[in-house]
Amino acid sequence: MAARHASKKRHASSSGQESDDGSSGGGLKTFIPWIVLVGAAAIVTAFALDLGAPAPTPARPAPAQPSTPLASTQLTNRPVTTAPAAPAPSPTAKANFTVSPAVLDYGTLAPGEVKPIDATVTNTGDEPLRFTGEMKGCSCTTLDLRPTTVQPGESVTFAATMTAGLTPTTKKSSIRLVLRDHQPARIEVDGEIVRGVRVNPRRLAAVGRPADNPDGPAVPVQVRRVRFESPSGTPFRILRVDGRDVKTFIGGDRFLNPQPTHAFIFDDFEQWDPVTGLNDKGELMPFFRMIETDHPGGEVIAIPVDHPARVAHLERRGERPWLWVETHLVVGAVEPGGTIAFDVPIKMAGANEAEMVHGVTSESPDVLDVTLAGIRREGREWRATINVTPKRTDDGAFLGRIRFHSPNYSASVPVIGAVRTTGA
How, if at all, do strands 185-193 and 103-109 pair? Predict the structure, then answer.
């Protein structure tokens, strides 16, 4: 029986079971080659299957998922370095520069006159000034300035050209040269549009409120003194006021004495109602006081009269895409039967050029005839050339209205001029 027990122990040992001393003994040595053999067979089988399989389809990229911060342990062996970003341009930074001349002073200009001035901008800062060639501000001024970069200490010279409008006025404004990396470079602009004779004030108020009752109802203005001055110092005479011979006014003879300056006191406005603007005949107050002189270029001077009733008679622009800044057009003097040509600046709001003016008609056929001689683009504006032929054959001023037309819109404007016989 002891022999049978010993035989079982030997059989267990040869079968790889644990021996009496607890070691694996020779059984482990026998088991390792089988593991290697089975593993190799599996590799060969997988390789053979892979050779016969079709090519794998590239996997589509997974949809982007919201990024989540990496834990500190994930960053331990993956340092991230970021290059310092270059400083961005600062369009709010103030540019350092000087302008010569300091103010673009155009002096006095006749209506429609074109006058250029050369200006120089010097970079007095430490950074380049990058001009885009664009400008903002006064629409009557254009620049001959191309995109350019002015380094510190350097300068750029360009022409700034003003085109005077048709209405006498004082031009005190500014233009701004657009810079890429700085605030625009601002340049002051000064000038005065004078039609031969300077008038002060340029407009008359027909109604006002008395000083002793400023909160009371409006009343007609009783006395208005207007000063007429020749900027060139040329002596001139005042011939007629509102079609009346100047001698019919009290002390009017003195205005026939040539002087470079005159001060005229107008009649009061009491004959017109301060609310309706009508007189006892139901006639509306005229919108202009018209003064005729013998000053070259100042043959007729129109002074607008402001009255509350005037607002109701103004034509609204509405959706019309074109407009002009002139409230009235003064065309100067012409001999009887003659025709005078003048340009009307027209601004286009937007890019609807299909609605540009294509015709003009007279609303006062008994006063004047009118034709559109042509229209052209000039800078940021359009220019319509108008021919006006007044009907009157004697000396004196005329006032009529003309209407501009585009395919879907129209607008009218007063036209004022004078007829002068030779030597008058």
Answer: parallel
Contact 411, 317 (CB under 8 A): yes
Helices (H), 19-134: 26-52, 72-75
- Given a contact cutoff of 8 angstroms between Cβ atoms, the answer to whether 189 and 143 are in contact is no
For residue 308, give its domain range: 195-314
Give kind and range of the element (H or E) at residue 377: strand 368-378
Q: What are phi and psi of 319, to 5 degrees?
A: -95, 10
Distance CA 322, CA 248 (A): 44
Q: What is the mean pLDDT of the chain?
A: 80
The predicted pLDDT at position 91 comes to 63
Report CA Rg, the chain. 46
Q: Is 175 helix (H, G, I), strand (E, B) or coil?
A: strand
Residue 299 and residue 342 in one domain: no
Cross-strand partners of 228: 199, 262
DSSP line for 263-312: EEEE--STTS-TTT-B-TTSPBPPSEEEEEE-STT-SEEEEEEE-GGGGG
CB 103 within 8 A of CB 124: no
- Residue 133: CB partners within 8 Å, gap ≥ 6? 143, 145, 146, 147, 148, 178
pLDDT tens digit sequence for 126-149: 999 999 998 888 778 888 999 999
Q: Is residue 409 part of a domain?
A: yes
Other beta carbons within 10 angstroms of residue 414's beta carbon come to 19
The number of folded domains in the chain is 3
